[in-house]
Design a protein that fits this description.
The protein is mainly beta. About 0% of the residues lie in helices and about 35% in strands. It has a five-stranded antiparallel beta sheet with strand order 1-8-7-9-10, with no helix packed on it.
Length: about 120
Amino acid sequence: MLKRFNNNRLFRTIVTGDDRRGHPGLTRRSALLHVTPPAFEHHRDPLGIGESRPRLSWTTTTDAPGWTQAAYEIEIRDASATETWRVESGESVLVPWPGAPLGSRERREARVRVHGADGSAGG
């Protein structure tokens, strides 16, 4: 299920168990949750990739035993707007581009935030 959100919320990269403000699902057990910046079609340098709807991939590392991803949010930003989509899915490899197709020479920035089955979030 794809849910669309329009907001300008910035996401944290690292969330620790000692800084749980605004992260009610985090416990000391899930002390570190880190999401790598998304890759576009597995390109290291996404400049001129030639895809109008590039798929995104990321990895998540955590020291919480048994942690699993239950959902993710993708934030797409250009010079004038920011849009965020939430998807209930454990997928993190070559997920579909959620926004409008890109035209030639268009630039976008993307961020990913993940949500765990235990309610934790990071990204």
